[in-house]
Amino acid sequence: MTALPLVEVSLLEIALLLKYKKCHSRSAVKVLLVSCGDVATEAGLRFHAQGHEITGWRRNSSKLPDAFSRQDVDLLESDTWPIIDPETEIVLLTPVPVSRDVQGYERSYLQVAQELCLRLREQAPQLRRLIYVSSTAVMGGDNGEWVDEQAPITATRETAKVLARTEAALAESFLPVTILRASGIYGPGRTRLIDLVTSGSAKIPGQSHWTNRIHRDDLAAAIVHVADLGDQAADLYLATDNTPAQLGEVYKFLAAELGAESPQAEATQATRRAGDRRLDNSRLLNSGLTLQYPSYVEGYRQMLSGIATRHA
Questions:
Q1: Average pLDDT over residues 278-283
Q2: Distance between CA 34 and CA 112 in Å, rounded?
Q3: DSSP letter assigned to residue 271
Q4: What pLDDT is stored for residue 288 in this prediction?
Q5: pLDDT confidence band for 5 (50 / 70 / 90)
Q6: For residues 213 and 184, is the Cβ–Cβ distance under 8 A?
Q7: 260 inside domain
Q8: Within a domain: residue 13?
Q9: If residue 237 lies in a helix (H) or strand (E), which one and from where to where?
């Protein structure tokens, strides 16, 4: 007679366990990577590690991992685009300009984004999130001030104005869009500052020059994190690390790490290529993301270790 309660409790425990597992397990979703370069490939590998199905669009898709479904797609020839799988739930757009002029940006960013939105509305009824990697080049700030997502768009360069127009087109698409405005992306294969130091070309700026950056792996992690947020994702995040730094400080650090001669100060004050501001990533951190490389120190040391490589 005493066995029955024991059996009932055991069955109850099993039922609760199955319910918990069902609620907390992550079901596989279909992810489409449009213009699948280095950052998108790293993000795709992380999605795949979660058990998701990855499709990569790239002009030469043979360079993509075998784990992806690969499709050769020339995004500049929209009449040749394949049909989007109607079960696609997550789409990542990471354009690369065909040329560094306004026309190249319009073709690669604005026109591709507009065409993609049109097709997603027609072909992807299960779409849960379209994530677009933009650039903080659309933002202002010239006096070292802290800038966050509330700051107005003040693009000055003509190419940056195209990026701003692309953001606007996506925001007005009536699709579930999240824009990640990335600061300077660095990581495996992105060695410009290292090369300047080793060649002796690096010069300490004669005026304030705040720089903002994000490691490729952290940007990829942010992409996956935003997708996992579902309906809780915001429309816009600044994707940058926790530690803006003076450019001269970064040069000196790299010289010390490389055993190179410390850079000299500029002979004449050069014009900055970008604004002088510090980007605030609080919104992204408060959403639950923890960066693997919170500052340039950790990130560049990882690069200099030679452990990671850039995806083809």
A1: 98
A2: 10
A3: P
A4: 98
A5: very low
A6: yes
A7: yes
A8: no
A9: strand 236-239
| Selected residue with higher pLDDT from 293 and 20 | 293
Q: How many domains does the structure of the chain reveal?
A: 1
147 and 279 Cβ atoms separated by less than 8 Å: yes
Tokens encoding 43: 């993000």
Which amino acid would we find at residue 234? A
82-120 pLDDT per residue, tens? 999 999 999 999 999 999 999 999 999 999 999 999 999
- Looking up tokens 């080049």, which residue turns up? 137
Backbone angle region of 306, left / alpha / beta, with phi > 0 → left and psi within -120 to 50 → alpha: left
d(CA 262, CA 264): 7
- Residue type (1 letter), 268: T
Distance in angstroms (rounded) separating the CA atoms of residues 80 and 219: 30
Asked whether the CA dihedral 179, 167, 137, 304 is positive or negative, the reply is positive
CA distance 202 to 131: 35
The two tokens of residue 310 are 């850039």
* CA distance linking residue 228 with residue 132, whole number of Å: 15
Which tokens in the block code for residue 239?
Answer: 């994707």
Chain mean position to CA 139:
17
3 lies in some domain: no
Integer-rounded Cα radius of gyration of the chain: 23
Identify the residue whose tokens are 């992810």: 31
Place of tokens 């049109």: 118
| Residue 191 domain boundaries | 27-305
Confidence band, pLDDT 50/70/90 cuts, at residue 7: very low
CATH number at residue 64: 3.40.50.720
| Residues in CB range of 231: below 8 A, 6 or more apart | 176
pLDDT band at 146 (very low <50, low <70, confident <90, very high): very high
Q: Is residue 147 part of a domain?
A: yes
- Which secondary-structure segment (H or E) carries 169? helix 158-171
Which amino acid does the sequence have at 282? S
Which token pair is 230?
């579902």
pLDDT of the residue at 270: 62
Check: CB of residue 7 under 8 Å from CB of residue 30. no
